[in-house]
Structure formats: C-alpha cells, structure tokens
Amino acid sequence: MDTDFHHRLASVAGEIEAMLVTIFDVATDPPVPPRLMAAMRYAVLGGGKRLRPFLVFETARLLKGEEETALRAGAAIELIHAYSLVHDDLPSMDDDDLRRGKPTVHRAFDEATAVLVGDALQTLAFETLADPATSGDAAIRARLIALLARAAGAAGMAGGQMLDLEAEGRFAGGVPVDLDAGAIRQLQAMKTGALLAGAVEMGATIGRADAERYQALQAYGRALGAAFQIADDILDVEASSAELGKATGKDAGRGKGTLVGLWGVAQARVELGRLVAEALAPLAVFGSEADILRAAARFTAERRS
C-alpha cells in the first residue's frame, strides 16, 4: 500500500498541477499585471505534496463523484493553502526566508507583492469554485464555496492564526501565553485542521455522500487534521531544514503553543498514534474501498517532510 499510495499521491499532484496551470492561463480582460501573475505562479506551481487537493479528489473518487469537479475543487483549496503560506511567511507574521526549498515570495519579489499575491490567490480560489465549469449543479458549487470559506475564515484558518499570534505574546508585550492542551487543540484545529477537514468535506459533497457516510468522513477529516499538526510540530523539532525545505526549530524559540512543547516528543507521539486510530475507525463503513484514505492518515503521521 505504501508504494501504491505514494504513486497515487504523485499522480494526483500532477493532475492538480496541470489544473492550476489551466486556471492561471485563463485570459482575463483586463489582463493580470505580469509581475503579479509571475509571483502567483511562483507561489503555487512546482512544489508541495498537494495533500489537501489529494484528500478532495480521493474522497470524491471513493463516492464516485465527478473527477473534473474534484480536480477544480482541489485546485481551489491548493490556491487557499498557497495564499496562507505566502502570508504566513511575511515579516509581520513568521518572517521566514525559505519555503519548499526556495526563497519565500516576499524575498523573491517584495513584501507588497507578496501581500497582493495572497489576496489574489484567495479570490481566485472562490472564482474557480463559482465557475460553472466546476460543476453544472449550482447547489454543489455553493456548498463548496461555503465549506472553503468556513475552513479558511475567521472561525477557521485565519482565526487559528490569530490564536497562534496571541500564544506567541504578540499582544502581551512579547511574553508567550501558556496554553493548556485543550487550548492548543483548539488553536491547531482552526489554524491547520480546518483546511484538511474541509478538503474531506468538499470531496464528500462532490460525491453526494449520504448522512452516515458524510459524518464518517467528517470525523476522519477532523482527526487527520489534528494528527497532521502534531506530526508537523514533531518535524520542527527533529527534521532538518533540508528535509523540510524551510527553517526548523523556530516554534520553541517563538513560544508557540504546541503539544510537543507542552508534553515533549514522546507523549506527543502517543497522541499522534491515538489520532491516527481515531481517523481510521470511521472508515470501517466503506470497507476496503477506503484504503487510500487509510494510507493518507498513516502517511500524515509518518512523513518526513
């Protein structure tokens, strides 16, 4: 399954890359300013595992949903993810110089361009979902827009980023705020988990899942999102910058609220294993047809980058 999974992940990533190029190549009137388009392409193309669009696509495929709809929805969620990375790297946020092994957008271009790139990628995501080319069913398009907006917005990713900044002490004179496990879980469920869980729900929507299957996939997505962040925090402690393609060891220095920081790596690994089991359990309703999603949960915990 490991070989099959990695082959499938790479295959879907290639299809998503092609869809993103197609979206960028659409002519507009007036045209997008060349510098902005170049920076948008730089931020999105040629890098990343494309795990979020993979979850959209494979969840939809499990339910025999329309592949073209899944590819376009997957491209939209990748545009949102890329925008969040561009803004997260800015000097006013995490102030990072390296992303996916190359200079961050504000370093490769400039800070003002990076702000506009994030803005443009975010709006392009919703334009993509609203396009009838994504689905002939307006209700499906509306539901996908609502799911992505909720996952990315003030009660999701953006709100989680605010909680993260508060935990660093940005608004308390630079003194990090001590968070308990419950507060850390809430922060991470919003900042990181919401978009991963949203990807699964988008796939379930495209596949027109019934209530039982939708709830099972929703539970899977939430547990997988929580597992992903713990794995990421462990990597920040244990992996090298070369492996991750970005700076490591920065969470502790900033006083970020993480379960690794609260408990240590050993106990965090126990929690990671528990969350993977929690993600796998609701997939029983699908039998062996959900093996690719099971492999995605294990990959989330075992990845080295």
TrEMBL record:
UniProt xrefs under CDD domains: Trans_IPPS_HT
PROSITE patterns named among the record's database cross-references: POLYPRENYL_SYNTHASE_1, POLYPRENYL_SYNTHASE_2
Record protein name field: Farnesyl diphosphate synthase
PANTHER family documented for this protein: FARNESYL DIPHOSPHATE SYNTHASE
Pfam families assigned to the protein according to its UniProt record, in alphabetical order: polyprenyl_synt
InterPro entries documented for this protein: Isoprenoid_synthase_dom_sf (IPR008949), Polyprenyl_synt (IPR000092), Polyprenyl_synt_CS (IPR033749), Prenyl_diphosphate_synthase (IPR053378)
Lineage of producing organism: Bacteria, Pseudomonadati, Pseudomonadota, Alphaproteobacteria, Hyphomicrobiales
EC number(s) stated in the UniProt entry for this protein: 2.5.1.1, 2.5.1.10
Protein source organism: Labrys monachus
Single GO molecular function: (2E,6E)-farnesyl diphosphate synthase activity
Root EC class: transferase
Keywords in alphabetical order: Isoprene biosynthesis, Magnesium, Metal-binding, Transferase
Cofactor(s) the protein needs: Mg(2+)
Family affiliation: Belongs to the FPP/GGPP synthase family.
Entry superkingdom: Bacteria
